[in-house]
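Researcher: Go.
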Amino acid sequence: MPDTHRIRLDTGQTIDCPAQINLLEALRNAGLNVRKACRNGICGLCRCRVVSGEFTYHWKEPHGLWQKDIEQGFILPCIAHAVTDLELDHIVLVTDAEG
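Model: Structure:
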C-alpha cells in the first residue's frame, strides 16, 4: 500500500495525499481554501464528489450527507482518506466574500 496517493481535481490540478492525512488536509495543504466548518463529518460544507478511485472513512460516519448525495458519489473529505488514487470534482472553495 503506497504512502501517498495522487488526487486529480476537475481543475486539472493534481496533488499528493499522504495516507496519514484526510483529503481535506491534503487539499488545504495544496493551497485550496476548501469550505469547512466542523471537520468531523457533521456539517457537510466540505463535500465533494468522487469521480473515480476508492476512499475510506475508517470508523467515522458521514452524518453531513443525505443518502441521495452518497448515491451520487459525494463524500466528506474532512473524514475521508484515500485508499487509491482519486479523481474529485464539485470542490467548493471559500470565496473572498465569505472571508
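Model: The domain at 4-94 is CATH 3.10.20.30 (Ubiquitin-like (UB roll)).
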